[in-house]
Amino acid sequence: MFTICKGSQNIVEETLTDKAANVRKLLQNADAIIIGAGAGLSTAAGIEYAGPRFTENFKDFIERYGMTDMYSAGFYPFRTEEEKWAYWSRHIRMNRYDAPVGEPYRQLLKMVEGKPYFVITTNVDAQFYKAGFDPLRIWAVQGDYGKLQCACGCHDTLYDNHDLIMEMCEKQRDCRIPSDLVPHCPRCGERMEINIRKDMYFVQDAQWYAEQTE
Ligand SMILES: [Zn+2]
Question: Which of 6, 89, 160, 214 is the most buried (most CB within 10 A)?
């Protein structure tokens, strides 16, 4: 419930329903819609990085590394690639592959379907794609958990990581993956990284530039 004061005499109470109705009307009358979406939308979709969703699925990592949530765990300075990928494969599997499409994404799509729309998002969990938004009208600025790149950015190809991530999850023991699953760049032999923007080596492939210029 939002209370809006208009002048000293009239107090108008605007409910959430009213607000939603106003937004719906604005959307219906718009010629085109640009959607800007960040982490809050995925949190509202149930992809929470803290609380039971974290503590129940990362008990072993919490005991070993003292992690408190999936956001800060993403910055943990793992000493080995085997440990890093043990954590990240589980993180990616949960948030990118296993997470169902969130209701807020479905509702948002219903509201804009039939209109010219474009999505600019910092979310890397692919919810917009999974919900059925037109991939040609999504610009995922900060990357995608589902792709790997050379850690040095020696070339701009991105690699789908689904099968590798699943295998890492299946075969990890004591917070480590087997060494032969550690990915290496097929061109320079360096480490591979997840294609998320965290340093100057973030790879923006042809698809990224195509989305930017849509
Ligand atoms: Zn390379």
Answer: 89
pLDDT at 211: 83
Domain count, the chain: 2
pLDDT tens, position by position, 167-214: 999 999 999 999 999 999 999 999 999 999 988 889 989 888 888 877
Gap from CA of 196 to ligand 1 centroid (Å): 16
Detail the DSSP E strand segments found in 19-142. 33-37, 117-121, 138-140
- Does 146 lie in the same domain as 92? yes
Whole-number Å distance, alpha carbon 160 to ligand 1 midpoint, is: 16
Same domain, 172 and 200: yes
**176 and 121 in one domain?**
yes
Residue 210 alpha carbon to ligand 1 centre in Å = 23
| Cα–Cα distance measured from residue 99 to residue 126, given in angstroms and rounded to the nearest whole number | 10
pLDDT of residue 21: 86
Question: Phi, psi (5° rounding) for residue 4?
Answer: -115, 125
